[in-house]
Recover the amino acids of this structure.
């Protein structure tokens, strides 16, 4: 759910990125691509860590880290 929410925020902010940075459509789309690649790369690692340390503990750590990074 958090990944979808953050992805939605990224889509909403794209027009402002284009306007403020003077970037083209292709350049701004790279922000979405980079975000999705990062999520996909860490998804496998997060699954393995969840198996090792417990899914609840990792979920709480992830939610706190996500909130801190989003702030």
């Amino acid at each position: 759910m958090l990944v979808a929410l953050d992805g939605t925020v990224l889509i909403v902010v794209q027009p402002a990125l284009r306007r403020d940075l003077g970037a083209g459509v292709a350049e701004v789309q790279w922000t979405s691509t980079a975000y999705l690649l990062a999520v996909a790369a860490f998804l496998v690692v997060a699954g393995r860590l969840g198996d090792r340390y417990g899914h609840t503990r990792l979920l709480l750590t992830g939610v706190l880290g996500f909130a801190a990074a989003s702030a």
